[in-house]
Design goal:
It is built from five helices and two strands. It is mainly alpha-helical. InterPro entries: Plant_ABCG.
Length: 116
């Protein structure tokens, strides 16, 4: 198993456990004030947040397969898997993705990987 140790002076300190493991793809990650990026990104890709709905709930309902019946009722026939494919494809080709990869490259120079 691998663990990541985060440099004490990095922006990630306190956000990642020393034993953090990730599976799947991250579509939204960040501080609360960055939630507007998530809602606008989802809207640009055909998943606008309905008025008076909690944006976090909307984002989760769109990509959570447990809510497939709700999504199909809202969009006609789209499943969470289809929504995820659209969002992942769009994100992978986005400028934001390139910026994140650049930032990760800089941060990875500060991160120590330890094998146990």
């Amino acid at each position: 198993m691998r663990t990541r140790k985060v440099d004490k002076h990095s922006q990630m300190e306190g956000r990642l456990s020393s034993n953090t493991r990730q599976t799947g793809e991250i579509l939204i990650n960040g501080h609360k004030q960055e939630l507007s990026y998530g809602t606008s990104f989802f809207a640009l890709n055909g998943f606008p947040c309905p008025p008076l709905q909690n944006p976090s709930d909307h984002l989760l309902k769109t990509i959570n397969k447990d809510f497939d019946q709700d999504i199909e009722a809202q969009t006609g026939t789209m499943t969470a898997e289809e929504a995820i494919c659209i969002l992942v494809s769009s994100y992978k080709s986005s400028e934001r993705n390139q910026d994140v990869h650049s930032e990760v490259a800089v941060l990875s120079k500060k991160v120590h990987i330890v094998a146990y």
